[in-house]
Design brief:
Oligomer: single chain
Number of helices: 15
Strand order of the largest sheet: 11-12-17-16-15-18
Structural class: alpha/beta
Helix content: 25-40%
Distance between the termini: 37 Å
Shape: elongated
């Protein structure tokens, strides 16, 4: 979707008029050099724009007002080249609506033994200038990411890049529209949630449309359009069926869905097998291909996981790996080799595939419709995360579970869906226990592209609780943390 082309980040450098024009000119020159260096290195997902060297409360307030009003500005990178008295920042920071990273660095890597004098010291004061800024941010309880280190180093730039992805995820969240075709699967608890609170907290505009409107859209798709998309799919996937009529119907549904979502300005959707009135098949291939092009999806009306799928896809756009709606389906409980088999009745994104997926047609024993075409594949191995956003009634909690995705250890020739296998950290018994303890859903987002750091930073920006299950997770410590977290969040 070329998400990152829509955004930029502003580099705002703090100083003050005390130093005089010559020093301030040097500050601006250094800031431009750093901006050029950050952009040219190629580690950042989008451009950094040197915006200004701010030297007074009025200048700080003005640039923050401009950032708030800019649709392109996804966040600020703030650095104090010299000492910038932090009382100057109070009014501006009080107004700030965009996420920001506090970069604690300095222009020069080394202290120049022979050249260092008081002029050099007055110019290069980040060591204490940034501490002054850190105090006021802490005093005002401003949420921010702190990155420490030399600005040219890869690890520093990667940390900035990760945060930039989180900030773009926040921007996408604030603008997200989600279409629900029908309601949630009946009697299911975890897929429910407060859509009003979700819009207040995340910006999501979640609205329901009758399936009949989609059916009418399906009828408008031309045979020529179906022919064209069918040929495109043959380039992307292997056709492993003689039932081309079922495949063509999925193509027709995909084109109708894409057109419907475009009309509504939506980048995520959900449906349910319990509400397919007027449709011949449950969308399988149609949904999978849409996810493969960047749309979010949630099965059984799960609009929260649909939104999170879109947001994680946006954050990780351009990175190796993939992201998909996922469900923990069944376990392999071989002693010492315990694994989870993830799948769904149809809808797993081909971005996770280890190789070219196959288009196949098989019966579907749920929904009462014709046999749907779907993509069948094995997932690619590598480190990954599971992400689950749950509504606890009084707040949202975001759970991330570190996993190792593995090549399926068996062929499963009679399983007619995409299949992903993973080892939960630190092991299945502890990991599953921790997930259940925290209230994680059976629906999640599986990503081998995004990182836990990205998701944690996104949660911090959005102001919600974050729980991380890792290789070091111990159940008793987690129980204590969840208990204390519950107390803290109830007080807010």
């Amino acid at each position: 979707m070329d998400t990152f082309k829509e955004y930029e980040f502003w580099f705002v450098v703090g100083s003050q008029f005390l130093y005089g024009p010559e020093t301030l000119e040097q500050v601006a020159l250094h800031a431009r050099t750093m901006t050029d260096g950050l952009n040219k290195k190629g580690l950042l997902p989008t451009n950094v724009i040197y915006k200004s060297t701010v030297k007074s409360a009025d200048e700080i307030t003005q640039v923050i007002k401009e950032a708030n009003a800019s649709d392109r500005c996804a966040g600020l990178i703030v650095w104090m080249h010299t000492f910038s008295p932090s009382k100057m920042w109070i009014n501006g920071l009080a107004l700030l609506q965009k996420p920001y990273v506090h970069l604690h660095t300095q222009f020069n890597r080394m202290i120049p033994n022979e050249e260092i004098d008081m002029d050099f010291m007055n110019l290069n004061q980040s060591a204490h200038g940034d501490r002054e800024h850190g105090f006021i941010a802490a005093r005002m309880h401003r949420k921010r990411k702190i990155v420490v280190g030399y600005w040219e180093d890869d690890d520093v730039q990667r940390s900035i890049a990760s945060w930039m992805r989180s900030a773009v995820g926040a921007a996408e969240s604030r603008n997200l529209k989600l279409v629900r075709f029908g309601d949630n699967m009946r009697e299911v608890a975890v897929t429910e949630g407060d859509k009003v609170e979700a819009q207040i907290k995340f910006g999501w505009q979640v609205n329901t449309f009758p399936v009949s409107e989609l059916v009418e859209q399906i009828k408008t798709v031309s045979e020529e359009a179906i022919d064209k998309r069918f040929e495109e799919l043959l380039e992307l996937y292997h056709l492993n069926t003689d039932d081309e009529d079922s495949v063509r119907y999925q193509v027709q549904v995909e084109l109708a869905l894409r057109s419907f979502l475009k009309e509504k300005g939506a980048k995520a959707f959900s449906n349910t097998f319990e509400d397919l009135s007027g449709m011949k098949q449950l969308p399988g291939l149609a949904t999978q291909h849409l996810m493969g092009t960047g749309y979010g999806y949630g099965g059984e009306g799960d609009w929260k996981v649909s939104a999170m799928t879109r947001i994680v896809k946006a954050m990780s756009e351009g990175l190796e790996g993939g992201t998909s709606f996922m469900e923990d389906y069944t376990y392999h409980l071989e002693a010492g080799n315990e694994l989870v088999l993830g799948a769904h009745m149809l809808e797993v994104c081909p971005s996770l595939a280890s190789k070219k997926a196959k288009i196949e047609v098989h019966p579907l024993g749920i929904g009462g419709k014709e046999n749907p075409a779907r993509l069948v594949f094995e997932g690619a191995s590598g480190p990954g995360i599971l992400v689950s956003l749950i509504d606890l009634g009084t707040r949202f909690r975001l759970i991330v579970h570190d996993v190792e995705v593995v090549k399926p250890i068996m062929s499963m020739p009679n399983l007619p869906v995409a299949r992903i296998m993973w080892k939960p950290m630190p092991d299945l018994k502890t990991g599953a226990h921790a997930w259940i303890l925290a209230g994680g859903s059976h629906h999640s987002v599986l990503s081998t592209a995004a990182t836990a750091e990205m998701i944690e930073d996104w949660a911090e920006i959005m102001g919600i609780e974050f729980v991380h299950i890792t290789k070091d997770t111990e159940l008793e410590r987690l129980k204590t943390r969840l208990f204390l977290s519950d107390l803290v969040w109830r007080l807010q």
